[in-house]
Write a structure and sequence with these properties.
Blueprint (H helix, E strand, L loop, with lengths): L1 H122 L3 H150 L5 H15 L4 E2 L5 E6 L4 E7 L3 E6 L5 E6 L6 E2 L4 E6 L3 E6 L5 E2 L4 E6 L10 E4 L10 E7 L5 E9 L3
Parallel strand pairs: 10-11
Antiparallel strand pairs: 1-2, 2-3, 3-13, 4-5, 5-10, 6-9, 7-8, 7-12, 12-13
Helix pairs in contact: 1-2, 2-3
């Protein structure tokens, strides 16, 4: 038995080493995931920066387009003003031409009048009359000519001054519009060059952004694959750890049984030694027998604050073992899967078991999960009986019904495990049916 115990201790040390290796591998995977998350966050930050820069460039392009549109509208307005001034110039030229024609017409009228007066003067044959009319006619012609010259000079000066003023205004406006058009052309050319540069930069940024998005997508796929592989590895390690724990618990149970058997055998050997030494006092022999009986009848349940292991055997060739960490334990699990009983073994402390999960595995294939209602409290020293559907009546806080399943399941190897909200294993109940 000591050799078996040493062998079991070596196996337990090997299992602990494997468990520590699994924990180290898990920490390494977590560190790698953290580094990948940091890299992903850096890439996302760079993408956000590029998007912000692209937005600023788009705003700049929009502003340049608005400025270009404003310049085009001003150019169109200048063209409209130039056309209007051209029309005004043509109108004024027409007015000048009309006035010149009117002056020509007045000149012809005056010439006709002079000819008529000369004709009238030629009819008078008297030298005195002829001289008189000639002098009068000359003075009248001179007055008319002076008046005509004066009016003509006034009109001519007015028309020349008005024409020079208008020509100067048109030339000034034309020069100003030409300068504005030159400035507008230079500005449009500069804006077009800047717009072409911005478009080139935008195309480069878009290509870089698409490349970064592809890299991010590839990193996401890689991260998903790593997470899936990591989760699969974690599940495998959890299953291995759970299996190791079950094996450790089985070994602890077997070790406890061996220790109990060893203690019983030691007590029997001591009795036999006393009997062989010639103990004849019946009272002393009776006391030794009672001591052996008490030693053999020691409770097979060992309670501590952190771990309790209980083992037993039913009359129908079904063995079970249960363990608990803390005050809440799986007191009973029906072999036919009708109900499961939880118990709070503490005499004064209530236990909040809301959202705790009760998992039941049947022959390592099927798994049934029941979640305790939220904010449920298991009173001190009380039990909670959870029925399958149609197997009992709900009567909180002592009885609940699991409506999702007609049975918690039955089989040759049934494991019932209680987990808290953090996923920590708090109690187990293992049922095995012998094949004999």
């Amino acid at each position: 038995m000591e050799g078996q115990i040493k062998k079991m201790q070596d196996e337990l040390a090997e299992i602990r080493r494997k468990y520590e290796d699994a924990i180290k591998g898990r920490e390494q995977d977590r560190a790698r995931i953290d580094s990948l998350l940091v890299q992903l966050s850096n890439i996302e930050a760079e993408i956000n920066l590029l998007k912000r820069r692209i937005g600023q460039l788009e705003d700049e392009v929009k502003r340049i387009k608005q400025e270009n549109q404003r310049m085009l509208s001003e150019l169109q307005r200048a063209r409209t003003d130039l056309d209007q001034e051209t029309l005004n110039r043509i109108d004024y030229q027409n007015q000048v031409q009309t006035l010149l024609e009117e002056i020509d017409f007045l000149r012809r009228v005056h010439d006709n009048e002079i000819k008529e007066l000369q004709t009238l003067a030629s009819r008078d044959t008297t030298p005195e009359n002829r001289e008189f009319f000639k002098n009068e006619l000359s003075s009248a012609i001179r007055d008319i000519r002076e008046e005509y010259d004066q009016v003509n000079n006034v009109h001519r000066n007015d028309m020349e001054s008005w024409y020079r003023l208008k020509v100067q205004e048109i030339q000034t406006q034309s020069a100003r519009q030409s300068m504005e058009q030159g400035y507008a052309k230079e500005e449009v050319k500069r804006l077009r060059t800047q717009l072409a540069d911005l478009r080139g930069k935008l195309a480069d940024l878009e290509s870089r952004n698409s490349l970064l998005e592809k890299q991010i997508q590839e990193l996401n796929y890689q991260l998903e694959d790593d997470q899936r592989s990591y989760e699969a590895a974690l599940n495998d390690r959890d299953s291995q750890i759970r299996k190791m724990r079950e094996e450790c618990q089985a070994l602890m149970v077997e070790l406890q049984m061996l220790l109990d058997t060893k203690q019983t055998l030691d007590a029997e050997i001591a009795i036999y030694r006393k009997m062989l030494e010639g103990e004849e006092n019946r009272a002393g022999l009776k006391q030794l027998v009672e001591q052996v009986v008490k030693t053999h009848a020691i409770s097979q349940e060992t309670d501590t604050e952190t771990m309790r292991v209980v083992k037993g055997e039913t009359a129908s060739r079904q063995s079970f073992q249960r363990s608990a960490k803390g005050n809440v334990s799986i007191h009973e699990a029906s072999p036919d899967g009708k109900y499961i009983v939880l118990q709070n073994t503490h005499r004064a402390k209530d236990e909040a078991i809301g959202e705790w999960k009760l998992k039941r595995r049947i022959d390592g294939k099927r798994e049934i999960v029941y979640t305790v209602p939220r904010d449920f409290v298991l009173r001190a020293g009380k039990t909670l009986k959870i029925f399958a559907r149609n197997q009992g009546v709900a009567s909180p806080p002592d009885q609940l019904v699991y409506d999702a399943e007609d049975s918690f399941g039955s089989g040759n190897n049934v494991q019932t495990i209680l987990f808290n909200k953090e996923g920590e294993e708090r109690a187990t109940h293992i049922q095995r049916q012998s094949t004999a």
